[in-house]
Amino acid sequence: MRVGILTGGGDCPGLNAVIRAVTKSLIRHGQCEVLGIEDGFQGLMEPLPRVQALDWQRVSGILHVGGTILGTSNSANPLRDAATLAQVGRNLAALNLDVVVVIGGDGTMSLAHGVAQATGVHCVGVPKTIDNDIAHCERSFGFDTAVTTAAEALRRLESTASSHHRVMIVETMGRHAGWLALEAGLAGAADVILLPEIDYDIEAVAAHCRAREQRQRYTIICMGEGAKARGAALTVREQVAGSPDPVRLGGVGHVLRMQLQPLLASEVRTTVLGHLQRGGDPTPFDRVLATRFGHHAAQLVVQRRFGQMATLQHGRIGSVPMAEVANVQRTVARGHELVTMARDIGVCLGD
Amino acid sequence: MRVGILTGGGDCPGLNAVIRAVTKSLIRHGQCEVLGIEDGFQGLMEPLPRVQALDWQRVSGILHVGGTILGTSNSANPLRDAATLAQVGRNLAALNLDVVVVIGGDGTMSLAHGVAQATGVHCVGVPKTIDNDIAHCERSFGFDTAVTTAAEALRRLESTASSHHRVMIVETMGRHAGWLALEAGLAGAADVILLPEIDYDIEAVAAHCRAREQRQRYTIICMGEGAKARGAALTVREQVAGSPDPVRLGGVGHVLRMQLQPLLASEVRTTVLGHLQRGGDPTPFDRVLATRFGHHAAQLVVQRRFGQMATLQHGRIGSVPMAEVANVQRTVARGHELVTMARDIGVCLGD
Amino acid sequence: MRVGILTGGGDCPGLNAVIRAVTKSLIRHGQCEVLGIEDGFQGLMEPLPRVQALDWQRVSGILHVGGTILGTSNSANPLRDAATLAQVGRNLAALNLDVVVVIGGDGTMSLAHGVAQATGVHCVGVPKTIDNDIAHCERSFGFDTAVTTAAEALRRLESTASSHHRVMIVETMGRHAGWLALEAGLAGAADVILLPEIDYDIEAVAAHCRAREQRQRYTIICMGEGAKARGAALTVREQVAGSPDPVRLGGVGHVLRMQLQPLLASEVRTTVLGHLQRGGDPTPFDRVLATRFGHHAAQLVVQRRFGQMATLQHGRIGSVPMAEVANVQRTVARGHELVTMARDIGVCLGD
Amino acid sequence: MRVGILTGGGDCPGLNAVIRAVTKSLIRHGQCEVLGIEDGFQGLMEPLPRVQALDWQRVSGILHVGGTILGTSNSANPLRDAATLAQVGRNLAALNLDVVVVIGGDGTMSLAHGVAQATGVHCVGVPKTIDNDIAHCERSFGFDTAVTTAAEALRRLESTASSHHRVMIVETMGRHAGWLALEAGLAGAADVILLPEIDYDIEAVAAHCRAREQRQRYTIICMGEGAKARGAALTVREQVAGSPDPVRLGGVGHVLRMQLQPLLASEVRTTVLGHLQRGGDPTPFDRVLATRFGHHAAQLVVQRRFGQMATLQHGRIGSVPMAEVANVQRTVARGHELVTMARDIGVCLGD
Lengths: 351, 351, 351, 351
Prior knowledge:
4 copies of one chain form a homotetramer.
Chain A: E1 2-7, H1 15-29, E2 33-37, H2 42-45, E3 51-53, H3 82-95, E4 99-104, H4 106-119, E5 122-127, H5 143-164, E6 167-172, H6 179-187, E7 192-194, H7 202-214, E8 219-224, H8 236-241, H9 252-260, E9 268-272, H10 284-302, E10 308-313, E11 316-321, H11 322-325, H12 337-344
Helix pairs in contact in A: 1-10, 5-6
């Protein structure tokens, strides 16, 4: 079999571990040739496809390396017009690929589904998201690394917060789902955790900070970038996207600072973690999880279970149809165990 | 309610996170007073019980701190004789405790069960094991930290192995269960993983190393301390325990070195991780998991579901009767997904 | 002798190590009582002084902890008016302090000098600066930690830069001195390093990025917050300070992005490290260096060498008069060994 | 010019940073071709020399990578007999090398000096030692990384020591010089530090532990592998080397345990860090320092200052004749600032 692999969308710690596991599993299985497609779908959209042969040596030593050796693209859309799609089809035919293992988020799964239907190429999916928000997948690789990075940042900022008696706001990723802010906040001992799923009442947040001003004298706030104040029609991010000067904005954490500062005696400061959360080497947990996803994807390939995406459900690796996850998101329910737990140990959820 | 907490057996990263979550949850619930019992059951076996009050401030700032603020004991046995048990009973009565939250391994659970039956005190359990081998619990806190420590050691030793073209053996904990060696080996890209559950054939291990001598020129072996050569009646550890000079032995990894060196051209070296795996600050993953266990134990207390131990099964927190886990171990099945995966990506399991 | 200790200005990793070393050295020397003054000079400016006794146990276990157990203040100015200064004098008299060990930057040294002259209290100084820019001190504690944090951030962002073929800008601290940007850039393998001391030519920076677009396909830029474009009358920071909406600005790295994006084909992204650089636990190097400074300050106290500040010069601990360092800064000379070296290994300095 | 580079002796974090800096500096200087010699002098002793071309791309991305991309050898001795030396001479002639940059310890410098005299090849040296014991060099790259590894191990073991009220012994590298044990002990808050340079009195060590048993209830001992008890004719290491069964010995830390356990009530445990100290990625400090050494070596090459070795003295990079450092060691003087400081803050030095 000739198998292509591509990584699409934003990079994520553990991509190389998946590439390695897919490749090694297929080579050990035998009768497989593996090709890496460069820069996501972009590598299939150009007049000549850009690919590299993946053999045992090429994928050795990359288990713990962040990023993707194949490159990726956020913007490449193979479905953008008929000519592009036709080019993709010609390239797939020229490469003589039986199946493409697509590693990406819900957007990439959606594109893969479309390409498969239009060109007849077979696909197998591996979910990739820093935000841990892909449907039917309770934990995706890269998430533990992002939680670790954000939790360590929270701890690091606690030194300054407690020394200067300040309120420190840390903005994490998470436009639509608050998993990262929630777990990082719990792991980093945040006093306030604000999620996109639970609109915050600025007075409730301020009251919590003021209560702490009396005793602990500092407060750590962990805020997902999609969080918004109650009653606000748009998230801050959406407001900014429509403003004339979005580039000047450092991040929504700065907006919370503007809201909060007038209500408090302590100084309020903001740190936006941004790309630090995506980069870096995967944690050992993510290396194992990414290897499991990659290994399972290789099994889907050799068992010809096309159109399936590897998942983790109830602690077990399995698979679901790719179509089921395209453009669906897993968000934090208000009654989720972790939310209840956060409240029970005294964390303010902003409501 | 008056609630005692004790930590028994070997220390483990995340104990303080459990203590914090139990205490904060009970205080927030209201009408609870929390007492920390010092040095495990030892604190109940002396003429005067050794305890400390646990309030909100005492358990703040300990989430990420390794070890246990209460102290622990490996050897204290409240059931060792009638006088000791009677003393424990008097102390429990004097402290007027309604329930004791016992954080420990299968041995500690067994002791707690015995004490509960003899004295009538209620108990609630929280599983603790670096080895991840407690029955009915698919992942215990502290394990991720130990895997991380061991996997980083494997990576670190790879520098030297590849520069000097050596075979490096790393001995991890795990007398009866190979989970730690298995996950650390997978996360640290070990070439050979030897588990207590799969006796190794020294010739098979040597053959794998020799094949690598030709191409990669170095080999990393990750070995659980309970691993033994096929046909050996006793594990190396057991042999050593019966030998006249056990103290001189640095660890069973040194024995594998003696077996392997004559069969290879490369130099073979051993590193025994030992206590490094138990110590240190818990990873963010373990901080969250330990908090979940502690929070659930507090719920078991307030719901008066005594005799239950918190568990993680199928990705969810729940509980099982403590009696079911006492002296039962969860070991690695030969057909476990991770074992199959390891073989499929080219790892030698020694058989 | 009765000795006070205070920490002033921004917090810095290693402050607790200094406090510990001063205290332990004085206690071991004998006949010394040590008092910690809270929140810098603020603790002396209030109607009742805020202090805490420092004994052996209080300073045990803090060697590796970030921040300062005494608290600090950026804004407290004991010289702001006659009444304040008189209050400080009364408090010093009431506390019956023979000498105050002042741990702070050039601003704090200047205040200490003023307080000493006005009140007659003796002072001994310990230099503190994340920026490593105190005169007569070639390496201050906290700097190695900040370099480590920033260098790790550069590495982390390289994953994303290379996967997405982007230009990544990292803004470090350093308003007037570029030491942090320089060493972090060297340690983090930055391709471009921009310092406050060397105005950059945006075209030169763009040309370097474009040359890399052809081959390596990504560029990492490390930029001190005080860097400015050649010909600009004001640094970006100064411009912003005078603008009507400074709070919206995420940092000067965003301005470089705006300048650079139109000149390049690759996407340009910015990360502002901000407070992450000040916080966190000190590196082992900084723990030892801070201990040396603290130990030397204690020697200055017992030898009654008042008015001196501990320094590191030519690799040795020594001291200089505090007056010599007040309001003087050590900046990066264009011909400094590290600058020449950076150029010689192909780093673009922007000129 | 044709320039060879080789790395000899044990591996050390930062070797790749030196290789990168030498290579990039020479390429940027122009008119230089750089060849990497494989496995130290071994690559010159075989019938055909083993070398690889080093260009810009080959040395990119290795700054932070542990080990050496060229490989090394502990045992290769080009001076072992006339035939070998003649072969080395023929290979050097065949490769047409003008100069060889030799990165190694005092033994390697000695060999290089001998080869230079016998064959007429020019050499330039870069000092390499985990132990920081090369004469005329106050800080060598790799040392900071080793200190960091050992100090973190000390902290990690403190969790267990304090939870179980134990005495924990950590054995570090350092056969003849105690720099590593000393700085790691200081950075890791060891209570006892034992150096090869100061024979310890087991009673003094035990007395310190007993005093702590009363109050802190645990003790951390950091011990260099060359430390020996007062009055012992041989170090433990030397005794073991002459014993029939050295391979069974886990390390000299185990011997101290045997000496100490009978004198104490607390349990005593030992951890031998071994190869963990050599491996792993260099710290940012070591990346910069190694780059400085490499850059300076390249300058020595282009300035034809042959026979010189790069050094760091009084905080500055410079050079000394290689002959001066061959077989000379820098050890810890009893009156060294750090020793005095250790005593002054209450550390027991064993005497």
